Amino acid sequence: MLFEPGLTSRSMRISVAVITYNWPQALELVLRALAAQTELPLEVIVTDDGSQAATRDCLLRLAPDYPTRLVHLWQPDRGARMSRARNRAIAAAQGDYVILLDGDMVVERHFIADHRSFARRGCFVQGSRVLSDATLTAQMLVQGRSPSMPHFFSHGIERRRHTLRLPTLAYWSTRPGMRQGGIKSCNMAFWRDDLLRVNGFNEAMTGWGREDTELAVRAFHIGLLRRDVRFSALATHLYHPTRKHGGPSNPNDHILQATRDQGLLRCRDGVEQHLAEFASPPLDLRALGVMPRPLARPLPATPGWNVAATQAAALVHQRVASVGSEHH
């Protein structure tokens, strides 16, 4: 059933799960773009696959002025464990709807609002991206706090059609389906309860690739459909050397094929094992610093800072110390 009664896209709370690894300069652009949205999400969860201290320092520097709940989840660097990192963010999410975003994806200012308008029960959403080259990426990083988003005629981009925001065309240009090609978790969105039904990402899949397609296949098996959002929910991917698996056979391909052949609905090692850890919401980083103060270029404000200061105050110094020693 595509449209269930109850919670709708108008009333849903949105969590953004940003995965990152040792690129704080890019992460700062991503976070500032999310802070400048026409509609803010409930929270931004940065799920960290083992970065060094510079990433935590970046987050703590941005946190006091951040206009919505900001969370940092860290796990030890034991190779590329994207599935586990994303599952921890899904488990920790307080929202009803989870937008998955990579830490090198700088979003256009209507990104959250566009995802909200496009969400439908019984479906997950696959977004798109503009690809920037090394020169344009360097320019955006130098611009820092307020980089110019590329437009259709910009130099240094590929897939320039994805610079066009045409919401009416976006609505009419999609048909729900079960196409498996082009699945990319760099810009993807699910209802959180649907992610729990399939047990999230398969943590048996490590290293590069296929974990997002395998998740989508299980989503199809439980009856979900895919909606591709085009001309809306725009984002620019910052250039970096490819991290794709270079061998003739990616071990994750075998797991993906088994999921297809066996019609699996759930994975064994998934989000379920992290739910107990986040039975209580993780700390909002804004509680570790001072309340918002004016900046030369302030981040957008929003009513209701939702800082759990009364609960966090007694733990602040203890948490700061433990984060520093445990994570690095």
Topology overview:
Layout lengths: L13 E7 L3 H12 L7 E6 L4 H10 L6 E6 L7 H11 L4 E6 L2 E3 L3 H8 L4 E4 L3 E3 L1 H10 L13 E2 L8 H6 L14 E5 H6 L13 H11 L3 E4 L6 E3 L13 H12 L46 H4 L3 H12 L1
Helix pairs in contact: 1-2, 8-9
Number of domains: 1
Largest sheet: 7 strands, mixed
> What is the annotated CATH architecture?
Alpha-Beta Complex
- CATH class descriptor name: Alpha Beta
> Going across the major beta sheet, what is the strand order?
3-2-1-4-9-6-10
**Low-confidence runs:** 1-6, 291-328
What's the gyration radius in Å?
A: 19 Å
Helix content: 25-40%
* CATH level 3 topology: Spore Coat Polysaccharide Biosynthesis Protein SpsA, Chain A
What is the assigned CATH homologous superfamily?
Answer: Spore Coat Polysaccharide Biosynthesis Protein SpsA, Chain A
Distance between the termini: 47 Å
The number of E-state strands comes to: 11
Number of helices: 11
Molecular shape: globular
Q: What portion of residues belong to β-strands?
A: 5-15%
Average pLDDT number: 84
Sequence of secondary-structure elements: EHEHEHEEHEEHEHEHHEEHHH
Q: What structural class should be given to the helix and strand makeup?
A: alpha/beta
What does this structure look like?
The chain is an alpha/beta fold. It has one domain: Spore Coat Polysaccharide Biosynthesis Protein SpsA, Chain A, CATH 3.90.550.10. The chain contains 11 helices and 11 strands. It has helices at 24-35, 53-62, 82-92, 111-118, 134-143, 167-172, 192-197, 211-221, 251-262, 309-312, 316-327; strands at 14-20, 43-48, 69-74, 97-102, 105-107, 123-126, 130-132, 157-158, 187-191, 225-228, 235-237. The strands form 2 sheets. The chain has a 7-stranded mixed beta sheet, with helices on both faces. A 4-stranded mixed beta sheet has the order 5-11-7-8. α2 (53-62) links the parallel β2 (43-48) and β3. The model is unreliable at 1-6 and 291-328 (pLDDT under 50).
